[in-house]
Hints:
- It is a single chain.
- By secondary structure, the protein is of the alpha/beta class.
- 43% of the residues lie in helices and 18% in strands.
- It starts with a helix and ends in a 10-residue tail after the last helix.
- The relative contact order is 0.08.
- Mean pLDDT is 83; it is low at 492-501 and 724-731.
Amino acid sequence: MGPLRFAARDDYAGIDRVVDLERAVARSLTQVQSLAVPRGLRTRLARIAKAFEAPLEGAKRRKTVARALEVLAPMAAPSFAEDLLVRPLSVLPGVGPKRAATFARRSLGCVADLLFHLPARYDDRRALLSVEALQVGLRATFVARVLLVDFVTSRGRGGRFRRVLQAVVGDDTGTVNLKWFHGGEALQGILTKGARILVTGDVRRYRFHKELLHPDVDVLGEDESAPEDPELQRLVADYPALEGVNPRAVRRLLAAALDEYADLVGGHLPEALVLQRRLPEPADALRGVHRPSPDEDVEALRERRSPAYERLVLEELYLLEVGLALRRAAQADRPGIAIRGDGPRTRAAPDALPFRLTGAQRRVWGEIRADLERPHPMNRLLQGDVGSGKTAVAFLAAVAVAESGRQTALMAPTELLAEQHARTLRHLAESGGEATALRIELLTASVPRADAEGVRARVAAGEADLVLGTHALVQRDVRFADLALAVVDEQHRFGVLQRAALGAKGGVAPDVLVMTATPIPRTLALTLYGDLDLSVIDEMPPGRTPVVTEVFRQGQGERVVQLIHQTAARGEQIYVVYPLVEESEKMDLRAAVESAQRIARAFPELRVDLVHGRLDAAARAEAMRRFRCGETQVLVSTSVIEVGVDVPNATLIIVEHAERFGLAQLHQLRGRVGRGTRPGTCALVARGGGEGSEARIEAMLETTDGFRIADADLRIRGPGEFLGTRQHGKLPDLRIADLVRDARLVSVAREAALAQVRDDPGLSQASALRDAVRARWGSRLALADVG
Length: 787
Ligand code: ADP
Ligand code: MG
């Protein structure tokens, strides 16, 4: 287009000075002919190429240049390709508005969605089986002849009749049945008797036969000796089933989308990275994923680590990491509150605590104090196992904030935990004399209304230094005189990326410290909490004895009873925990109630209490109080105690229906015992299996190390579940990359992104990248004010 522009400049003043204009244009346009771009566009470009084939002159030359520019100029606009890619699927041949709507309901709204709709698996048609060798339960591809084909009527569920297409096919070694409960009409034409077909599908057993339900079939040429049948040379991509859409249709549409749109997909990775890792162009990567060449390594494809996948994964991660880097940079620049970190009280506080800080606590406190002192908001994640002393460190931060005459809020996920924090922190505040004396207020739904009014008034008047409550309450109902630090205790919940709401409370953003008891692998943490700095307490306070974990199966109740007996005889206390899920809440509750009664009957000398979510807050608090001061010996509860109660004299925890708890939960529960100086026992009572339950119990027996538990959890559940994306929806929804599987690429993308943002903080030299990051992550990362 350069020569054309030049020719047209200043009203065609220079047109005659461009030598070989025609040849240059024609040559560059013929290259376009081979590109996968929409047909209309290709035709238009071909027409221009043709017009320039022969030398032109005078007015005709001008007119042709002008017409060519009309077509070509819009193509130079940065959004040109993007605009084509977001066209609805109805632009593809064979897709009407109705079909497009069906796809759109399955989140395939536009051409780009379809191009990035990745295969679920690959069928290797290069490895053919004989019919005899088909194995029940395995997926297979084979060639056979149609021996018999017919519709039969069968009675389906609810007694209704339905027409089923059945075919018997076979080769020299045997025969097998194929069945289609729906879509048979369309296949009837293909499956003529005697036809040679290629079949792919899952082999199952039906009565005494092997059969394939809804297999994929392709008709092959007649010549059996022709070894080069292209259908047999392929690795075929197979797509996740979409309700109401035939898999063939997906494959056909994808082929069309690839042919007409693949080359419009651009990449954003830095050129050096592309060269260094020898990555294919994005369009070739898409083709490589959807239509792998026959000599491709099928295992690499299946594990999504072929070069094609690597390109797509890196492209996606790179945009995310650039977004995170931009957000961090923006946050670091925002004005914040500088807290004095070296005031006399702050300096005296660590030594005024009733215990010596561990080395890890000391290091982390140093990191937090340095953040507090800076006149920019802190955004820090504090990671550490239950009982590692996170709250104690948060307390030191609150002392520093108070010494600067400002306020701290500590938000807990449950009332119970907020109450416990209040107790722990009041104890710390009282035990350290003047240095640690803080005015602490607790605000939960169970605080009587009149009292709550008083609390709110004192907080608003600046007469409280540290306010404790649940997330909801503190965020919604409290006006602070001067909030400088917000501590968010998330326990094992992942709240990610959307903590912006906190900062929005006052004018100047407060410092934010997020505490989590769920250890997560570092690369994962860096991306999940990509806008946070990370501190880790990886050392337990001294004097903790490791907890012994035991598993009891159905029928081993005697031994559990024995454990209770022995523990109580030593004067120690016992938790019995029942699972509680919403769907079976009533039954679960009944199980807990009955268990409490049973234990009370079996051990008349022990006092037994029951806590559960249905109990009103006052009754719950009272039960907790009785347990804490040893008035009751056994506390039966639904999983509410999971979140951090601290009773050092409790040394036995019995987890009923251990198979129903997640691994992180089990680990948290186990953390309830072994908090004092006496050894603890965690008894997992397994009453049947569930998905992955054996693996979870195995992991519990193997280790007490939170980080290893987290790794195991990740392996068992897979990343989506592990991260709780579905529940919270707060995670970046990655289409291709998988933060766990692609962990090593996460670091690659992260480094490239950091370098990019360091070199060009506003991305002013990379406007296409900036636009892409904004389009993809802008609102998720609140990047509006960035770049
Ligand atoms: P976390 O918040 O990580 O669960 P906490 O700060 O609540 O841990 O500490 C758990 C218990 O250990 C509390 O009773 C606390 O007083 C105590 N504790 C904290 N740090 C230490 C330490 N360095 N030495 C001894 N005990 C400690
Ligand atoms: Mg805690």
